[in-house]
Every structure is written in structure tokens, then in C-alpha cells.
């Protein structure tokens, strides 16, 4: 009898092993596309298996695969400006340091500020959960991309903006020589319970996003910006998915600018670092990744109010940086910075419309007085500059978006906080004209109700070009009368036709956008019907 029970138990165990799914491991491929060395650090969560490495060096252009055991949870981040003390040999980093004294973090986490990639593998429902978090601040741009996974929420996430350059002054971490090397969270900078979501603010009902967290969210819409950010910043893939984690995913690796160090070459002492090394910590957006840069904030919006809930105002006489752009190998790039007195108001202007109608060319023409001859979809690096219109100085922020259907889910992330939209259609494309009322007005009314819209007809120079219509028999010109009729239909306060190539009316487009924000049209008051007094006959 005992033997029979033993046989049954063994057989049941055999069936369990036969039909149960094995726990799935994953591979993290960590790559460094920065033009400087990065030391990734890894920290396993409590109760999860340790990894074969907890920290290592990646020179520019290098990658390393890390095997991750099943059901692992933990964090991965990048450390920068690392060196060994010349007298003690102790290893440390200026950002993301884990305090272990060596390249291996050995169970220690990142010292804020640091951009974090967070994982829980093979969790609830057999799914992986992952996110990129700016709750502890920011030090590097990071892209986290699943490789071959499946699931409704299986998509790339990350923070691709150079927030060190954009960081509010109160949050900046400065390196020797004045370079900003990291951007602190408001919690770390000020320690206030309302920023740290602690004490009386220790729950989602009481801890609300601050102007500082909105800066992070606007710049990196897919990343967590504060402790109780919405759950859309968490992504899911089927268990067993591998992941690519890339530092500085939008940069060109400057192999010629910095010689990769051999694996056995000692780390340079701290004193040997130069301003050239620090200067390499600036990033440039690449053409290949430009489409993913939708929603990146290029300059912080206006100071938002007084008191603890808003941004701390700088002293009188503060300055704001005006960025001038030029077109280079990677599209629009920064050429120089000029410091001017702060403008009185920030205006966020977002361009929308069908793909290939000339939105990006219009922005490039306005900001650089040049016209790109090749079609490159959405490579405009968001622009911010002080502009004077009718005697009023404003800081104008311009955001480009992609009109293609592939970006229907990502594009609305750029609409947050918009003051005005430029809704563009091509004067030689009937389809783009019809889509204004069919597609774009419903989308804008849904995601940004009440925000004024300037209707813009682009490619004015081609509408009267007879040779163009001979070469493109399918093209249909849109008349000024048709454009004006459409303006009335959608209720836009202005309609302007322009040519980015000749720059005709380009300035007028943006002047109109600024004016409609500063001087919104008065709403017509409905006349009240005067009721006649009742009389009894």
C-alpha cells in the first residue's frame, strides 16, 4: 500500500514536471552610444537571484550581454565621470555612484540623481513589467527596448532628451568647471514632503504632480516623473523577452574624439579629467531616432506661480538661453547659445497635420532661414527662443509632430500644455485638406479641447507652378477661397498660406500663433431674448 502511494506520488510529480512551463530567463544587452565611457550598475531586488555582474565599464560603442535569471527584479542605471582616487585607489563616479569603491556595485544602489531602468520579470500573469524612472532624477538618456516580446503593452520606453542641458537651475548638479552633469528630483533638491510624496502627502490622492515633475513628464512622456505618476509609464511583455538597454541612444558615437580604453587599462585619476571630457557629455539628436523624439521638451515652460507648489523664481536680472540651430549630418542641431533676459511668458506651439505636408520644413525655414532640399520626416529638434511681437516679448517653444498613422498613439503626448496649434495642410494635396476636418480637428478637440488653432496652407510656391502639375497629374490645387471656407468650418481664428522655400508668409504664421495666445479673440455673447410680460386678456 505504501509502495503504491509512493508510485502515484512519483507519477504525479513526473506529470507536473512534464506539463508545467519552465521559468524563462532573459538577456539584457547593454550598449553605450555615448561619446564617453559609461559604467552600468545593476541592483537585484530583495529575494531575487543575484547576477553574474553588478557593474562594469562600457567604452563608447561597446555592448555587453548580461544573463538574467527567471523571476528577477531589480534596477539598471549608468554611472558617468568615474575615476579612481590616485592615493587610495578607491573607485567613484560623479553621477550614479553606488558607493562600493569598485566598478562592481555589489548590492548597492545608485546615488541620486540617476536615470533608472526597472524590471520585474515573470511577474503577475506570467508577464514582464518594466519602466524607465526619473523619480530619482536624471543623469543619462536611456532607451529600453524589448527584443521579440509580445503583449498589448510590449513597447519601447525611455527618456531620450538631454535633460542636463534643459534642467531647471534649482535642480542642476554641476561638475568642476560649471558643466551640468545631472538633474536632481525636486524631492532630493528640497526635501519637501509634497515633492517626496511623504507625510501628509504620502498617497496618490494627496501627492500631485508639481511643476518640476511636469518638466520631467513633458520632456520624457513615457518615463515615470514622480512617485504616483500614472500607470501608463509601466510597460509589459511576455515572460522570456530579452531587452536592449542603450545609453545615449540618439547620439553619434565619437570614436575619433575619444580613444576607447583597453579592458586592462587603468581608470584615469580624477585630476586628469579635462574640460574636453566634460564637453563630450553633450548630445545631438540623430536622424535615425528623430521620429521617436516626439514629445521631448526643449526648454522649460514659464515659471509656474509663487509658493511651494511652483518653480522657484530666479532673482531679478536672470537670463534665459536662446538656442540657435543649424542643419547638419543629423538634421537640426544646436550651433550656439545666446543668453538674453527672460521673457515674460512661455508659449508652447505644436504643429500638426498629415505627413509630408511640410510641417518640419516650415519650422526649419522659420528658425534657421534655410530650406531643406531632402525629405526627412520629423527631424526638427524642438526650438525655444525669445520673440518680440507687437512690443511683447515671449519665449516661443516649437514642437514638431509626425502625421503618419504609426504615431497616432505617441503623437498626443506632445499636446500636453499646448497654448496654440498650427494645423497644416498642403495647398497641392486635396487629401491633406480634407483630413483637416476629418482627422485632425476631432483629434485636437479630444486631446486638447479649447486650444486655439491656426490653419496653415503650405507649399504656396507650388500651387501656381504649372510644371509641377504636369509632372504630378494627381495633385489638386487648393484655392484661397477653399482654405478660408475650411477656416470658418473648423472655427479657426486665422488662415495663412505660406511657402517654406521662398519664406513667403512664414513669419506671419508664427506671429499669428503668438497673437492668438496673447490676444485671444473675444467670444461673441449670445443675445438674451427679452420675454414680454404676460397679459391676461
Automatic annotation (TrEMBL):
Database matches in CDD domains: Rop_like (cd04133), TLP-PA (cd09218)
Bias-annotated ranges (Basic and acidic residues): 259-268
Membrane topology, as annotated: Peripheral membrane protein
Domain of life: Eukaryota
Signal peptide residues on this chain, from the entry's feature table: 1-25
GO cellular component assignments: cytoplasm; plasma membrane
Region called Disordered, residue ranges: 256-276
Entry GO MF terms: GTP binding; GTPase activity
Family designation: Belongs to the small GTPase superfamily. Rho family.
Protein name: Uncharacterized protein
Subcellular location: Cytoplasm; Membrane
Record carries keyword Magnesium: no
Keyword vocabulary terms for this entry: Cytoplasm, GTP-binding, Lipoprotein, Membrane, Methylation, Nucleotide-binding, Prenylation, Signal
Amino acid at each position: 500500500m505504501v509502495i503504491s502511494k509512493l508510485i502515484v506520488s512519483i507519477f504525479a510529480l513526473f506529470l507536473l514536471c512534464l506539463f508545467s512551463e519552465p521559468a524563462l530567463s532573459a538577456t539584457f544587452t547593454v550598449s553605450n552610444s555615448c561619446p564617453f565611457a559609461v559604467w552600468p550598475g545593476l541592483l537585484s531586488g530583495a529575494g531575487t537571484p543575484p547576477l553574474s555582474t553588478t557593474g562594469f565599464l562600457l567604452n563608447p560603442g561597446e555592448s555587453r550581454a548580461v544573463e538574467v535569471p527567471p523571476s528577477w527584479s531589480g534596477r539598471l542605471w549608468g554611472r558617468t565621470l568615474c575615476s579612481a582616487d590616485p592615493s587610495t585607489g578607491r573607485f567613484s563616479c560623479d553621477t550614479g555612484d553606488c558607493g562600493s569603491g569598485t566598478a562592481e556595485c555589489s548590492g548597492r544602489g545608485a546615488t541620486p540623481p540617476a536615470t533608472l531602468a526597472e524590471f520585474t520579470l515573470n511577474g503577475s500573469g506570467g508577464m514582464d513589467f518594466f519602466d524607465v524612472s526619473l523619480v530619482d532624477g536624471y543623469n543619462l538618456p536611456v532607451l529600453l527596448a524589448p527584443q521579440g516580446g509580445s503583449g498589448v503593452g510590449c513597447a519601447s520606453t525611455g527618456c531620450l532628451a538631454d535633460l542636463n542641458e534643459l534642467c531647471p537651475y534649482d535642480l542642476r548638479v554641476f561638475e568642476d568647471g560649471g558643466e551640468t552633469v545631472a538633474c536632481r528630483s525636486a524631492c532630493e533638491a528640497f526635501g519637501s514632503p509634497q515633492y517626496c510624496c511623504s507625510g501628509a502627502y504620502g498617497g496618490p490622492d494627496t501627492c500631485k504632480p508639481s511643476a518640476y515633475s511636469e518638466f520631467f513628464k513633458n520632456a520624457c512622456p513615457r518615463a515615470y516623473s514622480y512617485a504616483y505618476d500614472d500607470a501608463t509609464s509601466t510597460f509589459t511583455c511576455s515572460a522570456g523577452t530579452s531587452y536592449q538597454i542603450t545609453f545615449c541612444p540618439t547620439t553619434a558615437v565619437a570614436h575619433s574624439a575619444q580613444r576607447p580604453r583597453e579592458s586592462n587599462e587603468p581608470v584615469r585619476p580624477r585630476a586628469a579629467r579635462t574640460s574636453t571630457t566634460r564637453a563630450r557629455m553633450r548630445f545631438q539628436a540623430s536622424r535615425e531616432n528623430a521620429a521617436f523624439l516626439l514629445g521631448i521638451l526643449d526648454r522649460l515652460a514659464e515659471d509656474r506661480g509663487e509658493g511651494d507648489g511652483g518653480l522657484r523664481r530666479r532673482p531679478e536680472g536672470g537670463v534665459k538661453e536662446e538656442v540657435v540651430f543649424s542643419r547638419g549630418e543629423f538634421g537640426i542641431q544646436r550651433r550656439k547659445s545666446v543668453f538674453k533676459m527672460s521673457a515674460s511668458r512661455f508659449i508652447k506651439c505644436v504643429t500638426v497635420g498629415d505627413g509630408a505636408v511640410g510641417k518640419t520644413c516650415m519650422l526649419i525655414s522659420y528658425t534657421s532661414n534655410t530650406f531643406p532640399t531632402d525629405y526627412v520626416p520629423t527631424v526638427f529638434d524642438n526650438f525655444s527662443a525669445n520673440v518680440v511681437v507687437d512690443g511683447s516679448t515671449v519665449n516661443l517653444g516649437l514642437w514638431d509632430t509626425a502625421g503618419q498613422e504609426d504615431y497616432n498613439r505617441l503623437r498626443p503626448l506632445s499636446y500636453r500644455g499646448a497654448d496654440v496649434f498650427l494645423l497644416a495642410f498642403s495647398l497641392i494635396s486635396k487629401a491633406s485638406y480634407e483630413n483637416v476636418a476629418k482627422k485632425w480637428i476631432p483629434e485636437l478637440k479630444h486631446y486638447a479641447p479649447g486650444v486655439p488653432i491656426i490653419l496653415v496652407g503650405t507649399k504656396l510656391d507650388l500651387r501656381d507652378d504649372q510644371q509641377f502639375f504636369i509632372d504630378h497629374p494627381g495633385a489638386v490645387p487648393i484655392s484661397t477661397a477653399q482654405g478660408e471656407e475650411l477656416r470658418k468650418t473648423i472655427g479657426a481664428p486665422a488662415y495663412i498660406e505660406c511657402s517654406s522655400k521662398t519664406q513667403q508668409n512664414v513669419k506671419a504664421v508664427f506671429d499669428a500663433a503668438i497673437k492668438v495666445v496673447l490676444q485671444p479673440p473675444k467670444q461673441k455673447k449670445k443675445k438674451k431674448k427679452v420675454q414680454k410680460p404676460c397679459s391676461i386678456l
